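The authors assume throughout that readers already know how a fold can be written as discrete tokens. For illustration, here is how one protein appears when written out as sequence plus structure tokens:
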Amino acid sequence: MARIQLDEVSVDLPVYSASARSLKARLLPAGRIGEGPRHQILVHALRDVSCEFEAGDHVALVGRNGAGKSTFLSVLAGIYEPAYGRVQVEGRIAALLDINLGMEDEATGRENVMLRGRLLGMSKAEITARLAEIVEFAALGDHIDLPLTTYSTGMRLRLAFSVSTCVAPDVLLLDEIIGVGDVEFAKRSTERMQQLIQRSQILVVASHNTHLLAELCNKAIWLEGGRVREIGPAAAVMARYQSS
């Protein structure tokens, strides 16, 4: 059975840009800036986050821009390692955070199906077995054997989405609900996304569309300044968040 547990998780992100000093001045009063061992500036993206979710939990992540929602999802996906604390995620994960992640411009569409599939944790045999289904859903025709450099933006998105949604995950992570491509494909992608959500045991989704979150989710986490302000039933937490 799928399960997620975070125990006092903190994430620090280094900042190397020339604007680091102004960033430090703006965020220092909020307590979200620190220094690393070589005096590089660190943003405290998450601080002391603890939560636990089990099969059947559909979790809404709410909070203002910069509250830590995307970082929280990236921690669950294994993209960010916590500076402190413990993360435990049981079950197969599908993370639709950046559906272009792992795509290579010089490789063909078919080769990118293999690359993206392996990144999602699929075996070579699994990808091969689903290849025809992925190609058909993406509706790329003979372009599947051409390099990605020849693809339009819409074609790239269709291919990436088709690969990313071909697995049946135990844990589904979403950063906004994805609708891609032209009107016809957007309709098919919405239907496929709904099926994916229904098949997953745990859903964690960040979105500014609170009406959609209310329809999808039974629990919610309200993040503020990288910390958990409240966890509880979705309707109650989102009502207090909106009134704030």
Summary: The helical segments are 20-27, 69-77, 109-119, 124-138, 153-164, 183-199, 210-216, 234-243.
